[in-house]
Structures are given as structure tokens and as C-alpha cells.
Amino acid sequence: MTSTKYFLVLAIIIASAGSAVAVHCYQCDASQNPKCGEIFEPDDSMKIDCSRIPAPFYATYILGRNASATGCVKRMLQKSSVFTVTGEPYIARSCFYGDFSNPKGGCEMDTQTGFTKQISCSACSDDFCNSSTAAAPIIVTILTLLVMTRIFS
To answer: Who contacts 11 (Cβ-Cβ below 8 Å, separation ≥6)?
Structure first.
């Protein structure tokens, strides 16, 4: 019976390691898709594998050609012109390319996107964590710990 417990724990560890290889995030822009706003209504078309899209210009310039996503990001942006702000704030979600010990570097704006002012930026490291509710990854972690505690007690 103990070998079954160890096999189950090993399977959980392997499954966790496999999911850590590529980061998956929501990618959308509320200025083009109202479902991406503060009241987030995700669908499968918003889900992306960050390893399959090119890194933004700032990430390749700062981190090098092989920049990889390290998490997800949710930004509050506002359109602007050279001198003034021209629109209402909106939310954009995408992959995060940076170091979590210094998230400011990964929250840099891509200079190729034109005139956009960033109001806020929050980065996270779990898959699909850039939704409005960040409780899902925490709940999964707690449930996994409870199951493992039950197995070994």
C-alpha cells in the first residue's frame, strides 16, 4: 500500500513539473473585446501558450532573443496622444516577460504599441492567473496540500 502512495505523490510532482515548462495566460484587450474588462468573461479564444508567441520588443531587447515568458500580466492602460490622454482606462491581459523580484522591468511598455499610458501593472506566475479572480491557483494549492496530508496520515 505504501508504494501506491509514493507512486501517487510522484505522479503529482511530475504533473506539476510538466505544467511549469510553458506558461499559459489569457491574452486580450478590453478596448477591442468588452469581455476582457474588469468583469472578466474568459473563453478559450483568449487562452494562449506564451511559448508559441514572440516576445515583445522590450523583452527581446532587454532579456535577449530567447526571452521566455515567466508569468502572466494584467495591465490598466489608457490611450493617449503626444500631449494628452484621449480615452477611458481599459484592461489588457498577456504574458509577462520579466523577473518577479523586480516586476517593474517586466511591466515595461512595448515601444512598438504606439501612444499608450500604463496606469497599473500586476504580474503573477501561475497559469491563467491574470484573470480578475486570482483565488483559483491558491485553492488548487491548498487542495493539493490537503490531499497529500491525508495520504501520509
So the answer is: none
